[in-house]
Every structure is written in C-alpha cells, then in structure tokens.
Amino acid sequence: GSTLREAAADEGGRFYGVAVNDSMLSNSQYANLVAQEFSSVTAENVMKWETIQPSQGQFNWSGGDRLVNFAQQNNQKVYGHTLVWHSQMPGWLENGNFSAAQLRQITNNHISQVVGRYAGDIERWDVVNEAFNEDGTRRQNKWQQTIGDGYIAEAFRAANAADPSAKLFINDYNVEGINSKSTGMYNLVRSLLDQGVPIHGVGLQTHLILGQVPSSLQQNIQRFADLGLEVVLTEIDIRMQMPSDSSKLQQQANDFRAVTQACLAVSRCTGMTVWGLRDGDSWVPDVFQGYGAPLLFTDSYQKKPAYDAVLSALGGG
Ligand code: G3I
C-alpha cells in the first residue's frame, strides 16, 4: 500500500486514523489528505460533552454529523470520543449540584442520546476517558465523587444498551508502558469483565516524548489483549523540544516506527490513530511550553520522516 490506510489494511485489516479538527474540514487540502491517508477519524473536540450537550437537554449534532458524513463519503470508520470525562464538561454539568440519582439520570440520558444517534455509524466509543490518577487509584472526578466506583460499569451498560454493536473502550494517557497507572486500569478492566460488564477494548492514548517510547509497550498491549480485549493506540503524538532539527526528526521517525511495530506485534491491537494531521494542528504547543512538531505532516502538508517510518513499518511504501 502506498498510503497509511492501505498499508494498515494489509496488516490484518487494521485501521490507521487521525483526529480531525472540525474547523479544518472545509479546507479542501486538509480534507483531501485526511481522506487519502486515513481509514478512521476521531473528532478532536466536537463529540465531547461541552459541544454536544452545551445546555441540559439541548443537543448540538452539527459537528458530529459533519464528521460522520465525511467518513461515510470517504469509506472511513469513526472512533467516538468521548462520553464520560472530567474535562470539557459544559458549565451546567461541571457546576451543577446533583444527587447520585440525578447524575445517573443525566449521564444515562447523555450516553443513550449520543450513542443512539450514531448507532451503526460509530464502530468504537471511548466510554470513559482518563479515569485514573498516576498511582493507579481512581481520579476523583464528578462521577466518582457523586456516584462512586460503580459509575464506570454503569456508563458501559448504558452505551451497550444504546448500541449493542458498538465496541466500548476505556481510554487513558500514561498507560502505554507497564506502570502503576496501567496496572490500575488492568485490574479494573479485569474486574469489569468478571462482572460481565460490556467492555471490549482499551485505548492507550500514546502522547509520548521524543526518545521515550516505553520499553514495555508491546508487553503492556499484550497483557490487555490476553484478557480478550482489543487495544487501540488512540491519540498518538511524539513531541520534541523546539526548534526541531534533522536529528530530532530522525529520532521521531524511529520512535513512531517502534510504536507501530509494538501494535503490529499483537493481533488484537486493531488500530492506531494520530492526534491531529499537521504539526500546527496539535494541542501540544498550547499545553507544553517549548514543545511541538509531534505529528506526521508539516504545516504545508508535507510528509515528515516519521510518516515514512510508519508507512514502512506497516509494510507499505
Ligand atoms: O472553542 C473555543 C473557542 O471558541 C475559543 O475562542 C478558543 C480560545 O482558546 O478556545 C476554543 O476551545 C479550545 C478547544 O480545544 C477547541 O479548539 C480550548 O481552549 C482548548 O483547551 C481545547 O483543547 C483540546 C483539549 O483536548 C481540551 O482538553 C484539544 O483541542 C484536544 O486536542 C485535546 O484532546 C485531548 C483528548 O480529548 C483526550 N486526551 C488528551 C488530549 C490532549 O489534551
């Protein structure tokens, strides 16, 4: 295959995806490259709670529908992101004082509306995002504080009821290697499976730093796969201290190759998604001062060394 999507498909039917910035979809150069190179799209922002239910009971489907239509026109999968997350909550939810019963009702309604609208169109959903602290304990988000430990199982059950065919994921960052956080996640998904909770996969976000691909990445993917779960690398980027230079770009290519190979080594690692198209589309410089250039394309849509490394690791070129 001469594109990421073709090469990934030839590797056991995997997908290679990208997070899409809704405001760029009207730019034809951006849209054409997304269509050409990628077989899956994730909404970078427009399916998050603050966008999709900005006031209680008022749903705004415009951005989500635009992405789903785009994907259908271009024969792409859609990866749904995300239903229950402590960040990018609308003010009414973040600041509301709800009882456990009320928050349950609000959350079940949100999940059934959103998953229901896209039932059959969205193959995978991040049902719960970033539920862990770095030490592997539960993050004290609004659901944990109000409902307690059971909120995760309840969210998965609500999503499964809304679309029994969707594959339901738990997703987090800093869980790529074997460490306290990924072990917390591992123990939780094991107990969810024991309880018969409909969970089908684990998303490893894979926001990495140049030269720091965890050496236990493949082993960690394998331990989740051994539970019978799918693993997806959901938000890949590899940031470097700016300015970039050719040796950093070569290191980045090596790092992207290692990440790709780790996924390919495990048959249940079914897909990978990069978190943005061009370096300038990335969230990284806004959050990590002095860091950037974490993606596969330059701002002028040129392929970086990391692109070539991913394509060749996928057996393409
Ligand atoms: O929409 C407003 C716009 O009206 C306003 O003028 C502008 C001014 O700052 O802000 C815009 O909102 C921004 C939003 O992206 C949409 O562009 C927010 O400030 C900005 O904080 C937000 O950042 C997003 C971030 O999640 C928020 O947590 C990034 O684009 C997005 O890439 C990032 O994605 C997350 C994943 O969802 C979960 N995992 C981590 C990953 C990186 O943080």
UniProtKB/TrEMBL annotation:
Catalytic activity, reaction form: Endohydrolysis of (1->4)-beta-D-xylosidic linkages in xylans
> For this protein, what is any one GO molecular function term?
endo-1,4-beta-xylanase activity
Query: Which keywords label this protein?
Result: Carbohydrate metabolism, Glycosidase, Hydrolase, Polysaccharide degradation, Signal, Xylan degradation
Q: Does the keyword Hydrolase apply?
A: yes
Which enzyme class, named as a word?
A: hydrolase
* Source superkingdom: Bacteria
Q: Which GO terms describe its biological process?
A: xylan catabolic process
Q: Which residues form the GH10 domain?
A: 1-313
Q: Does the keyword Signal apply?
A: yes
Annotated EC = 3.2.1.8
User: What family does this chain come from, according to its entry?
Assistant: Belongs to the glycosyl hydrolase 10 (cellulase F) family.
Q: What is this protein called?
A: Beta-xylanase
Q: Which residues of the full protein are shown?
A: 35 to 351 of 494
